[in-house]
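Reading is simple: the token line describes the chain's fold. The lines below illustrate.

. . .
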Amino acid sequence: MTDTSAPTPPSAPADATPSDTAPVTIAVQYIKDLSFESPRAPHAFAELNRAPQIEVSVGVKVEALGERHYEVILHIEATAKLGDTPLFLVELDYGGAVALAGVPQESINAVLMIECPRLLFPFARAVIDNVTRDAGMPPLMINPVDFVSMYRAQPENAAKAAN
């Protein structure tokens, strides 16, 4: 007979302080919204003999859920065209419920806008890859994203980084 019960995860020692715990904990990650459109299917499949032009945009949204608890949403939108003809459009909002411990107040925004999306991105990229492939299109493996540059490009964050 085998034991099918799940192992009990280790818990923090009773005397652990917030600095002893991980600074970023993703409690859960999930698909919040997913849309795939192939407006020219099934005719588009006959045109797949050449590589489409792909445009990808990525954004990050953060919403406070409580004290040091946040929802981080990674928004990815990708369009594929053959010339002026749309091949597909995929939009994904991929979220994570995040808890921060021991992160200095002045670093919270940067951690939420850089580190959290960096942790969520591989999973969101896999969703996009699978959806495009399952839709009969060539799989779309999105290149890694520089979340630091995205963060610095926001005017309110550029001013903070300069100080």
In short: Helices lie at 108-134, 147-153, 155-162. The first strand starts at residue 24 and ends at 37. The first helix runs from residue 108 to 134.
